[in-house]
Amino acid sequence: MSVSTTRSPLPTIALLVLAGFVCIFNEAEMNIALIAISKIYGIEVTSAQWLTTGYMLITGTFMPLSAFAMGRFGSRKTVLGALTVLLFGLLVSAFAPNFGILLAGRLIQALGCSFFTPVMMAVIITLAPKNRLGTYNGVMMFVLMAAPALSPTFAGVILTSFGLPWLFYVIIPILILLIIALSIFLPDTIEARQTTLDMRSVIFSILGFGGVVYAVGNAASAGFTAPTTLVPAGVGVIALIVYSRRQLRLERPLLNVRIFANRQYRASIVLVGVLQTILFGTILVAPLFLQDTWGMSASQAGLLILPSGVATAIANLMAGIAYDRFGTRIVPYGLAVCTVGYLGVAATMYWDLGKASFAIFCVVYALGLPFAMTALTSNSLKSLEPEQYPDGSSLNNTIQQITGSAGTALFTIIVYRSFTLPGNTYASRLSNGAEVSFLVAALAMLILFDTYLLLRPVLTRRRPDEQVRSVLES
Asked: Angle of helix 389-417 relative to helix 66-94, nearest 10 degrees?
């Protein structure tokens, strides 16, 4: 691993984070468009949802290969190649004549982002001073979380004013400029080395991660006990077991799963995965509720959600700085604030307290979430050795994609299975489902709060080199 010393890292970091913003904006903008797409193509919302679930399927399947790509081709070639694939996928979707081609373009976009996002994070982690990892991660998350904050508003306005293809048209020229700029400023921060591709590992990786994410995606429409869910889930779990055992035997594994032996990393990333499940589930439910229950347009729903997205972005910056000073002690405060926010949104839906109440409580949970998620993500990476950063970044992103997909499927099931609750109209039944969804989110925060207290000795453990540094500084 090598870091260029002849150039300031700031242009590299800025361009990578901007490209990451484009990736996440592109991923998140579909949430606000699902209802419009279902009407345009005459399909069910659960079918249109494959634009998001399928996206996560591809990213969850191929992200584990990003660590190998970094090692085989270096960070520069991997980044430029991944963004070029993303550009091609945008062009396919922009000119798609039917839903099938639109979905194909989305899957190509996901392939590009699946390789780009872990490399971006690994490069930034490599450049960041160890004692300021939380701050750098917070700044990165501040920009990246601005993407899902802004995407509902901008995507809603674009969709309402210009139509579906323009969701892709506006991104294409920005991405072209970023590819040109990165080709100039991006060095091989993580250099290529001689590695061989173990095809059996690749096959088991695709079957394992792909099978699990595909099963979770099917669960949204068929349920968790359906054969179309259980069979791919079973194949995926078995393949992952074989894959993991093989990685432990290889001298140069495709993905270094040994980092799971690190208890601090393992505890941190499991909690992050649960938080990601709740985050993606509520991100899906909120626009559906606003449009189908309160009758708002896509742009109106996006504007109402915007303050919470801005709050999340700002809170990520604050959480990164706070983590460097207080460590994971900030996590339970974030979880407590989230609980209040989710309960407030559920109460607003149940008693129809109005748009202002909805927006305020969304801001409340949006302020709390980063103090848990950003702190735990930083904690997971800080527990690793520098040479483990590519594998840690790849695993982190893979787990978050799988759990995000699980959240989308789980909350879709909660919403539509709640149609059995009392309600005379589609809107009232959807409202029932949305209320239950946010109550489930609040309950999950309480469980995570108790879990953090149980795991606190593991999560707050310092590495020996950090203990020595602390003694010397005192």
From this structure: 50
CATH code for position 417? 1.20.1250.20
Beta carbons of 378 and 133 less than 8 angstroms apart: yes
42-51, 206-215, 244-253, 344-353 — which is least confidently predicted? 42-51
Residue at 150: amino acid letter:
L
Answer whether residue 277 is part of any domain: yes
pTM of the model: 0.80
**Domain contains 1:** no
The Cα 235–Cα 232 span in angstroms is 5
Lowest mean pLDDT among 56-65, 123-132, 154-163, 198-207: 123-132
The amino acid occupying position 201 is S
230: containing domain: 198-253
With residue 372 as reference, give the H or E element that holds it.
Answer: helix 355-382
**Host H or E run for residue 225:** none
- Examine the pLDDT at 319 and tell me if it is beyond 70: yes
Q: Give yes or no: residues 26 and 132 share one domain.
A: yes
Which contacts qualify for 237-241: CB closer than 8 Å, 24 or more apart?
237/208, 237/211, 237/212, 238/208, 239/204, 239/205, 239/207, 239/208, 239/211, 240/204, 240/208, 240/209, 240/212
Contact 341, 366 (CB under 8 A): yes
The DSSP symbol for 64 reads G
First to last CA, the chain: 31
Q: Each residue of 402-435: pLDDT tens digit? A: 888 788 888 988 887 777 666 667 778 888 889 9
In whole angstroms, give the CA distance from residue 171 to residue 89.
11
3-state helix, strand, coil in the chain (%, to 5): 85, 0, 15
Residue 313: C-alpha distances to residues 132, 142, 336, 380 (Å): 19, 4, 19, 20
Same domain, residue pair 390 and 417: yes
Residue-level pLDDT at 230: 92
Please report which residue ranges of 95-170 form alpha helices under DSSP H.
99-127, 133-161, 166-169
Residue 349 lies in a domain: yes
